[in-house]
Write a structure and sequence with these properties.
5-stranded mixed beta sheet, alpha+beta, about 270 residues, 7 strands, single chain
């Protein structure tokens, strides 16, 4: 069964009216759209519609910035655009207004990278792949020896991979605990010193979540130096992001990266 991507989930939650209003605000106010709507909220008071539009504006802003980007896959260049800098600062200010704010640099980075993933996925055609449990188990037995990073290519510059919940891959949310991963955005990153994949693991809110926005995210990147042994590349990447990630999450993440690699190799070999 095809499940929703994160973008589709929030698109449904926000609703078409709020999204259309957000689009108009972004066209009228550009980088200041979010600040303008916050001011409107202070003047009119809280409402469900205001919250929905507030949630939609960042996504609309990033999508608009993507249209002007020379290379949407060049993350560093995209994030250096004045509009992205303004958006990041505004998101941080919004979070600091909340009673139990979490506006750390990691939090802001995750928010911005998530918006980039959703926008670049939309830009490149919103391609979705589903890995069923049987395929995941078969790929888990695939031997990586003798393969290099040159053997690996994404079918598109950005894809969304649906993961069977029975695979029991997890990501942690500070407030709501562990969530079982349902999917991930995987995108090529250009403009760096070496080829790289950016990966965003996502799990929607739990059934007992206090709000519809209480999801869990974990983003990281995988460097793919040309000609490097594939298993060595996996080990290198595990060490790079492992120092600031809990041991349990590192284990889940390495297993997930291996499945992504093996799925793509199986596609190229014509066995999937």
């Amino acid at each position: 069964m095809i499940r929703e991507t994160r973008f589709e989930y929030y698109d449904r939650i926000i609703g078409p009216d709020a999204r259309r209003m957000a689009e108009r605000l972004v066209e009228q106010h550009r980088a200041d759209a979010l600040k303008y709507w916050i001011a409107v909220g202070f003047e009119r008071g809280p409402s469900k519609m205001h919250d929905a539009v507030l949630s939609a504006i960042p996504s609309m802003m990033v999508q608009r910035l993507m249209r002007d980007a020379t290379d949407p896959s060049a993350v560093k260049a995209v994030f250096q655009q004045p509009g992205m800098v303004t958006l990041g600062s505004t998101i941080e200010c919004i979070d600091r207004l909340r009673p139990n704010h979490s506006a750390t640099s990691d939090y802001i980075q995750t928010e911005m990278v998530t918006l980039w993933h959703e926008a670049v996925h939309r830009h490149y055609g919103r391609k979705v792949y589903e890995v069923d449990l049987g395929l995941a188990e078969r790929l888990a037995q695939t031997e990586l020896r003798g393969l290099s990073t040159d053997d690996l290519k994404l079918p598109f510059k950005s894809i969304y991979v649906q993961i069977p919940t029975s695979a029991d891959l997890k990501v942690a949310n500070v407030e709501s605990g562990e969530h079982i991963i349902e999917g991930a955005y995987v995108a090529e990153v250009t403009g760096d010193t070496e080829p790289r994949w950016a990966i965003l693991l996502w799990e929607p809110p739990k059934k007992d979540a206090q709000t519809v926005y209480d999801d869990a995210l974990f983003c990281f990147s995988v460097a793919l130096p040309p000609g490097m042994d594939l298993d060595a590349a996996l080990t290198r990447n595990e060490h790079e992001f492992g120092s600031h990630v809990p041991e349990t999450t590192r284990a889940y993440t390495r297993g997930y990266i291996e499945r992504i690699y093996r799925k793509m190799l199986a596609r190229q070999a014509g066995t999937y």
